[in-house]
Amino acid sequence: MTSLLRAPTDPRWVGTALASLDATLQDHAHCEKKAAASALKLVADHPDRPELVRALAKLAQEEMQHFLAVLAELGRRGVPLPPDGGDPYAQALVARVRSGDATARLVDRLLVAALIEARSCERLWLLAGALPEPRLRELYARLAQSEAGHERLFVELARGVVGGARRGEAAEVDARLGVLAEEEARIVAGLPIVARVH
């Protein structure tokens, strides 16, 4: 389990995800699409931060490649992409983002993204270890590794935002990450176990 997460996924989730693999893949495709869109929204909202813009533009490109990879898998299985029904997990986490101070809000948006990537990473690794088909196992292992990199990137970007504004105060980002990680664990514990990535 990644160090950001305060609680592991319920072991029953893997069986549920595998039992309805088409639904899991459909949800995963939507997750990748939304990850790309969220990164581009941060770029649009903060064009004055060139390091953030470059990093998140590249991340959005990677997420779109993941989206296409999962879409291709759905195509192989003859499964269409349904309308996006929303993600209660991500919505609950985003609701914890502070309003008001622009720097605090940006830090929270980045840390929430890091936690979403951390949970995705954990669950994609779980799938990679349980999928019966070697090709799918390899795909999910690659995707999980990429999510781990994205998780670290978002934390580094959040520290950079505070470091750029007030030198020597990146510890406050880590403290806020701890608070949000506890919230994330509570959110996960309160959600039903379904065939979704989150």
From TrEMBL:
Pfam families: MiaE. InterPro entries: Ferritin-like (IPR012347), Ferritin-like_SF (IPR009078), tRNA-Hydrxlase_MiaE (IPR010386). Gene3D superfamilies: 1.20.1260.10. PANTHER family: TRNA 2-(METHYLSULFANYL)-N(6)-ISOPENTENYLADENOSINE(37) HYDROXYLASE, TRNA-(MS[2]IO[6]A)-HYDROXYLASE. This is tRNA-(Ms[2]io[6]A)-hydroxylase. It comes from Anaeromyxobacter oryzae.
